[in-house]
Here is the input.
Amino acid sequence: MSPADRFQSIANSPVGGRITRTLGLPTPPILERHEPGKPVVSGPVLLGGAHGGRLTEPAREVLRSIGAHILDSPAAASGGEDPDLSAIVFDASGIDGVERLKALYEFFHPVVRALRRSGRVVVLTTPPAEADSPDEAIAQRAIEGFVRSVGKEVGSRGSTAQTLQVARGGEPGLESTLRFLLSARSAYVSGQVIRVEATEAADVVVPEDWDAPLAGRVVAVTGASRGIGESIATVLARDGAEVLCVDIPAAGEALSAVANRIGGSSLQLDVTDSQAPARLADHVAERHGRLDGLVHNAGITRDKTLGRMSEDQWDAVLDVNLASQTRLNRELFERELIGAGGRLVSVSSVSGIAGNRGQSNYATSKAGIIGMVGALAPMLRERGATINAVAPGFIETAMTAAMPLAVREGGRRTNSLVQGGQPVDVAETIGWLASPASTAVNGNVVRVCGQALIGA
Amino acid sequence: MNASTRRPAAILGGNRIPFARQNGAYAEASNQDMLTAALDGLVSRFGLRDATLGEVAAGAVLKKSRDFNMTRESVLGSALAADTPAYDVQQACGTGLETTIHVANKVALGQIECGVAGGVDTTSDAPIEVNEDLRRLLLDLNKAKSVPERMRLLTRLRPGQIVPLIPRNEEPRTGLSMGEHQAISTKRWGIGREEQDEHTVRSHQRLAAAYDRGFLDDLMTPFLGLERDQNLRPDSTMEKLAKLRPVFGEGPDATMTAANSTPLTDGASTVLVASEEWAEERSLPVLAHLVDAETGAVDFVHGGDDLLGAPLYAVPRLLARNGLELGDFDFYEIHEAFASQVLMTLKAWEDPAFCSEQLGLEAPFGSIDLDRLNVNGSSLATGHPFAATGGRIVATLAKLLAERGSGRGLISICAAGGQGVTAILERPA
Here is the structure.
């Protein structure tokens, strides 16, 4: 567990809560998080759709697969006294014109308040670019604004809302993403637009055990000795992966402890070293034969406003956070060590989306990762592999704990969930993207930011 | 031995913690702490958590009496499976190589599939014993059956008995320290100050270069915040060393300084040894094989031999048995207890009189190309936690051979008590 959010503890205590409410302060909700063996959803799921939608039945199949109690009518949901819905799933793909957007209001208006704490709203749409008419494209795009607003309304209760764009032909690849978004694994992901691509049913890997979707897979994680990297390694190992933990030699003591704790192995490697690509590739070839996944997490900050930034500060950040990733990728591709089914996941940042004062170097590197995802996604698709990025917002780590109070509080509270995320929230998101079942998720940049205001 | 009953014993790699100077970074660490850390680093490097190994053999030269089962205790505290057996070996500075030989022999004979050899020493957290008078008295007190008897015994208590017994780097049979012994040898072999200092500077420079090219990245795991050997002086120069006063030997010909002698050091090392089959099952590349070894001793008490001269005899025997000559090696690792010990060894093997009279050879044993000797530095630069040196050298040489692709290397380690442990590592083409 990362540094504590004391305000959250106080606001959630009986006495403290009364005080904070009197003062009109928000109460940061306690978010439910995944535990092995826990069902994807514990309560009923309301499933609905606009007339003519193509995604209701595929969604129903997934809900059946997770053993959810499915409710088909809003009346059944709003009938009770207590808010009891674990999730509301709405197929909006049938909304083919602007005037039909009202279906959103009609469906959600009576039931949205029946959503329990840490509940989930998922709205399924068609990517506007695939719309059959301009009218349909406008309507499908408009839905994003609706869902983001719902996210902001339900966030104070720890609930989230996402838009899930399913390409035509993407129906068979829906399960891993819908499971993730409905589960506690996506605790700190909200207001996102996630795209599922067209895929052949035969290409979709269905894990034997959804609690160990990474069983038998070898995944390397850079920067694995502490913080978010340590959490990523831990979650991937929990999900069954054989994890190769990589970090700089100077971090070797902590790295070794992480590898032994999760039952993985360690490799002391400075990713910026000119020999690093060859060393990693040799190690992978000799010890594992291949990599099923590579998580580029190693990153540094050297914050200074541009006029005061030294050349070294610029160079170091760009090299560690971006250039080293492209070099490692190139070597691993050339030597065919990441093959069909391979999963590349890179850690970007909300700073890379929004920019940040004093972080021109860091934001450049993190925006470059978004560029890398876009540039490599088509090539990887041809190889049957994927590349995606996560963009963390304010995550509670030793780094954020060292921030000045005002800056830290500002970062923590300016999002729909009124709190910072935990490293495990980033890790769970990467676990979903690294899963063999996520064949149809390629080229996405998913923010793990509690729907932060900045860069939204 | 019948070759058909033996199989190759493979060195798969090693792990050590950086060596710290006495009362430096590991001042508060015990032998068990350091050995456990070195083991855990090895476990993570090779993905061996919860693995049951054939055995772990390690030891320490300076050991507390309560550490009677030090290696086993370290295994129990490590990430290895608790049903991995372990035992301690103690052969002075030869310990780390001797344990490697033990484990390799068991692998070669098929008695075990894999094992870890190693060693550890602390000069900071050294065992201190009560002095002999007090120890006797305490034992008698323990035996006493009545209160009056105990009271009577307590009257024997004297202030002088409080003075503890601190371990000394001293040969019990001569009363001379190892440095004092080597000062005699240095003078006898005519080893000058300048050549000792040159050798020392080279050791530091070569170790610094090895760090710079990342050679130690997969041989070492930081411990207690220490990332590199604390004794390393990358900027060491002849001029700086020339300023140091001699610490061993007497008079104007004293040449041995604190720089060209190894300092007191703390640290631990481990080596992973296995059968080829075990290595292949786990997809662990083989770096080299331990081909043969020879441990010898000399009579330095009455026979006039050099205290640290045992390898001078052991290596020629080892090579003769394997049909090899001194020039048949790509790398030589001669433990730098003192720069003069290394230089004395080279000189002896080039000396016709020594080779003929002492080794019974018709011609000098041979010369060693300095470009192949201790190419990544040795104990003068890394420091020398006695029992940990063997493991450091074995892992270093095995990796050098793996980098080269094929070749042969010689290890020679001198030890207290007039002993020497030597071995041949080989990587087939």
